[in-house]
Amino acid sequence: MTSAAITHGLFHLAIKTADLGRTRAFWTGVIGLREIARPDFGYPGAWLACGQPGGQAIIHVYAGGPALGPGGQVPHGSGAIDHVSLACSGYHAYVARFRAAGLDWREFLVPGTTLWQLFVYDPSGVQLELTFEGAVEGGAPPDMSAARVYRAGSSFFDPLAYPALTALTPPPRSGEPHDATP
């Protein structure tokens, strides 16, 4: 037993959703995480892990009663958290996935570094920042045109225009509804 207080890293991020099927499809079909076994907490959800063998469940999704806010609705967005950043590779492959899924996204070059970034929203309005080491990525650098550049503090999430992701939607797991709410 140690008496030192040490933080080793982020263990997971929990996301509330009104549409478990579409959220699962985004995180697995677009972002490339894989679903792993999840304990039975008595409400619907999913644990999603990085694709490599032994990858940790970094995203926990939950739906149903525990996902509802005080008004009985699942909240959108990330509250005081601006975005979640994931270290990635395959910049142009992600752009192709966003296009194929009908998603809107933004691009950025981190000033004074070789880092490239993509910004996209999940179906619950959680903003993701995918960060890439540009020195090892092939192809053109991020599009910094006015229509595509990321601007901190400026949301481009529109829940009414968010795609259905039906082509990416995996079948519901046994005993679990496709959508957690009607």
UniProtKB/TrEMBL annotation:
<protein>
    <submittedName>
        <fullName>Catechol 2,3-dioxygenase-like lactoylglutathione lyase family enzyme</fullName>
    </submittedName>
</protein>
<dbReference type="InterPro" id="IPR004360">
    <property type="entry name" value="Glyas_Fos-R_dOase_dom"/>
</dbReference>
<keyword id="KW-0456">Lyase</keyword>
<feature type="domain" description="VOC">
    <location>
        <begin position="9"/>
        <end position="133"/>
    </location>
</feature>
<dbReference type="InterPro" id="IPR029068">
    <property type="entry name" value="Glyas_Bleomycin-R_OHBP_Dase"/>
</dbReference>
<dbReference type="InterPro" id="IPR037523">
    <property type="entry name" value="VOC_core"/>
</dbReference>
<dbReference type="GO" id="GO:0016829">
    <property type="term" value="F:lyase activity"/>
</dbReference>
<dbReference type="Pfam" id="PF00903">
    <property type="entry name" value="Glyoxalase"/>
</dbReference>
